[in-house]
Design goal:
mainly alpha, globular
Length: about 325
């Protein structure tokens, strides 16, 4: 990462001509200090690049385990299905119908994997990436050294958020991609089936699945925003991750209480299952639009509070 340095060409850049708005003063300035007081050659936009933070997070064990489990889960589900005997005593009934649905093709196996993961597992993974990113640095004491490089606070927070969102999206894609690959290899490339729509041809079914993933990614922005805010507020990574998951579960419980009436519409989890409308015939988009607006609004609010808090937080003490 680039930081404050007395060597203007440290990163292979040519010396910046005087007069360019980079904070560098003419060569005759005393001490090689810019008009803003920073060292000559210092560029805030070159500190903590995205690739550097991406590699730092990739080297962490929790990142490797989380992404690895996204690949492992479809394999576990596939193996579990092999033990289904199809008998009414053991594999029949509701479970038997789910197995019959999931094993009817690669697209259906992918849809099943997403369905069983969306309500909890994906929430935990997104909360892990977004809730651990700042709090863990603060607990280790390395956050103050990043700021002393110096990395501007707003840039540090923005880069960490972008990296956390990138890994969250990667986890979602790994889950769906692995399920589609092994499901297709095992059960074939068949039309997409559901209980709320006519059978969809594989091409259209794949587009519907991509739309489902896109909507889930938008809904999970609420978890990302909440976990990121808690990560800025507390120095305990477990508290940030666990707090985001618990608040999401609390919202889900409150959404089941019909006595709350219209208040339920304002809960962040109220439209979390609206993606099922993408599988219907015709496609139901009303709740999807409302859910997307709600998720983006909540996420923007949480991120705004996180930036406001972090730029005023005493990190040194």
């Amino acid at each position: 990462m680039a930081g404050s340095t007395d060597e203007p060409t440290r990163d292979g850049d040519e010396p910046t001509p005087s007069g360019v708005a980079t904070g560098v003063v003419p060569s005759g300035a005393p001490g090689g200090v810019s008009a803003s007081g920073s060292a000559a050659g210092y560029r805030p936009s070159r500190t903590l690049p995205f690739a550097a933070e991406f590699r730092r997070q990739a080297a962490r064990r929790r990142t490797q385990l989380a992404l690895g489990f996204m690949v492992l889960l479809p394999l576990i589900i596939l193996i579990a299905f092999q033990f289904d005997s199809g008998d009414d005593d053991n594999g029949g009934g509701e479970f038997g119908s789910l197995v019959s649905f999931a094993t009817s093709g690669g697209l259906n196996f992918t849809l099943f994997s997403i369905f069983v993961s969306a309500s909890f597992l994906l929430v935990v993974v997104v909360a892990l990436f977004c809730g651990d990113t700042v709090a863990s640095e603060a607990s280790w004491g390395s956050l103050r050294y990043l700021l002393a490089v110096p990395v501007p606070r707003a840039r540090l927070l923005a880069i960490k958020l972008l990296v956390a969102l990138t890994y969250s999206a990667l986890a979602l894609l790994l889950l769906a991609g692995t399920a589609l690959l092994i499901g297709t290899l095992r059960y074939g490339w068949s039309p997409l089936r559901s209980t709320v729509a006519a059978q969809l041809e594989p091409g259209e079914g794949l587009l519907r699945l991509l739309a489902v993933l896109g909507y889930l990614a938008v809904v999970l922005l609420v978890v990302a925003g909440l976990a990121f805010l808690l990560s800025v507020i507390t120095d305990a990574a477990l508290g940030a991750v666990g707090g985001a998951v618990l608040l999401w579960i609390l919202s889900s419980i409150l959404d089941q209480i019909t006595a709350l009436g219209a208040i339920r519409s304002f809960l962040p989890t109220h439209y979390s299952t609206a993606w099922l409308g993408l599988l219907s015939t015709p496609v139901q988009t009303d709740d999807i639009v409302r859910g997307a607006i709600s998720a983006i609004s909540y996420a923007t609010l949480f991120w705004g509070l996180a930036f406001w808090r972090f730029t005023r937080k005493d990190v040194v003490s």
